[in-house]
UniProtKB/TrEMBL annotation:
GO CC terms of this entry: membrane
Highest taxon above the source species: Bacteria
GO terms for MF: peptidase activity
Location in the cell: Membrane
Record organism: Gynuella sunshinyii YC6258
Pfam families referenced in this protein's UniProt entry, alphabetically: Band_7 (PF01145)
Residue ranges crossing the lipid bilayer per the database entry: 17-38
UniProt protein name: Protein HflK
Domain Band: 33-205
Family as reported in the entry's similarity comment: Belongs to the band 7/mec-2 family. HflK subfamily.
Sorted UniProt keywords: Hydrolase, Membrane, Protease, Transmembrane, Transmembrane helix
Length: 299
């Protein structure tokens, strides 16, 4: 009996304190439970009775009415999310593992779709599985886009064009479906023919490379010959100009000498004629030689 008496006595003494804790501290803790923190790369979505009243709560410390009146959902909106699409791993889906190109060839395709959450409220409420829906949109866009390009273009110069086309197409459909995401980039991680026909494409690539090599060699030879021909033409032109200049100078000199002789002839015709006759004989006889032979000897 003494133990029961002690318990009763302790209860009577602490009953007021217990009620103070129950009626004061617990409600206080309940009210203080409404404080929450939004990280630097996050955005908060504030719900009141299940309805969104603010889908862009900024980073920092905030307060909302305790549950079940209000609640907060935190989403990472600044970080870039990645979604890997490997068509070879879609065996459990009603889609062939290879993708068909515009010229009826098959290619293995692996895409990396990068996106961010642009509208947190729409992303969280307009679809039960927005990322799964985005995956289906990306797959369908890839199939449609590859049907517009031939395999030679895809394997050479069309990769960048395909990446830009896919990004724009996926973004447009995501906007139409109200997914609340922004597609930042689409990267082609793999785009090649299946192994069974890879050798044929390798042979085609080798032949294309050999053709380019031969064309470059011929273009180099052509450029070398053109340069040599231009050099020869310039050299011939310079030689012709020098020869013409020499002839012109000689003709001008002969003309001046003729005019001087004519002027002297007018002054003294007989003396000038005799001098010119002697100069002519001198030029004619200059190469001649005289040999003296004994009488009776001839050669």
């Amino acid at each position: 009996m003494s133990a029961e008496t002690d318990v009763s006595r302790v209860w009577r003494q602490t009953r007021k304190l217990a009620w103070v804790l129950i009626l004061g501290v617990l409600p206080g803790l309940y009210v203080l439970g409404g404080f929450y923190t939004v990280g630097a790369e996050q955005a908060g979505i504030l719900y009141r009775f299940g309805r969104i009243i603010d889908d862009r709560v900024p980073p920092g410390i905030h307060y909302h009415l305790p549950w079940p009146l209000e609640r907060v959902q935190l989403l990472s909106v600044s970080s870039v999310r990645s979604m890997l699409l490997d068509f070879n791993e879609l065996s459990d889906v009603d889609v062939q593992s290879e993708v068909t190109t515009g010229d009826q060839n098959l290619v293995n395709l692996v895409l990396n779709v990068q996106y961010t959450i642009q509208q947190p409220g729409i992303f969280a409420t307009h679809s039960q599985a927005p990322e799964a829906l985005l995956k289906q949109v990306a797959m369908s866009s890839a199939v449609v886009s590859l049907l517009q390009l031939d395999i030679d273009t895809l394997l050479t110069t069309g990769r960048n064009e395909l990446q830009q086309t896919l990004r724009q197409s996926i973004q447009k459909q995501a906007y139409d479906l109200d997914l609340g995401v922004k597609v930042t980039a689409v990267q082609i991680q793999k785009l090649d023919p299946p192994g069974s026909i890879q050798r044929a494409f390798d042979d085609v690539d080798s032949a294309r490379s050999e053709r380019q090599r031969l064309v470059q060699e011929e273009q180099g030879e052509r450029s070398s010959r053109l340069a040599e021909a231009r050099s020869q033409a310039n050299r011939t032109t310079l030689q012709s100009q020098a020869w013409v200049s020499e002839l012109r100078e000689k003709a001008e000199g002969d003309t001046q000498r003729l005019m001087l002789n004519y002027a002297e002839y007018q002054k003294a015709p007989a003396l000038t004629a005799q001098r010119q006759h002697m100069e002519m004989l001198e030029r004619i006889m200059a190469p001649a030689s005289v040999k003296v032979l004994p009488p009776g000897r001839t050669e």
